Amino acid sequence: MAHRHPLRRGARGLSRSRPRSGQPVRSRDRNALDSSLVTPQDPRRPSEPVRTCIGCRKRAAKSELLRVVAGAGTVVPDPGGSAPGRGAHLHPSLACFELAERKRAFGRALRHDAGSGAGALDLAGLREHLTTPVR
Q: Which pLDDT score, from 0 to 100, does residue 133 have?
């Protein structure tokens, strides 16, 4: 059976000596990049990581959200984003916090099982962090 791929026709003597119009010219070195094929970064693609808020479920840049982690039965804010363990992201507003609390999103996002004797997560420390004014 004959090859159907246009670049493999060379074995049968049907190769083209020059490309069709609109096609990029291939160099002999397969590892070399053709300058016509290199494009700048796609403007639709975000330049930084994107995360979803567990309260409002809206996507935002990672730098705009507050990372929280579960530690010893409490939810602890992690502004630096370097605490060990599973984290979840939340807009640093009381509205998103209350929405996430009402939806019981903290237990789901942090994969905390309240039925295994560990009890419910304590959210008081996170609430205090969100209500304390920044100096």
A: 83
CATH class of residue range 50-131: alpha beta
Mean pLDDT of 117-128: 85
Assigned token pair, 70: 């579960």
**Sequence spans of domains, the chain:** 50-131
Question: What is the model's pLDDT at position 48?
Answer: 92
Residue among 70, 63, 74 nearest 84 (CA): 70
Concatenated DSSP letters of the chain: ----SGGGGGGGT---SSPPTTSPPPPSSTTSPPTTT--PPPTTS-SS-EEEBTTT--EEEGGGSEEEEEETTEEEEETTS--SS-EEEE-SSHHHHHHHHHHTHHHHHTT--GGGTT-PPB-HHHHHHHHSPP-
Burial of 76 (0-12, 13-18, 19+ CB in 10 A): middle
pTM for the model: 0.64
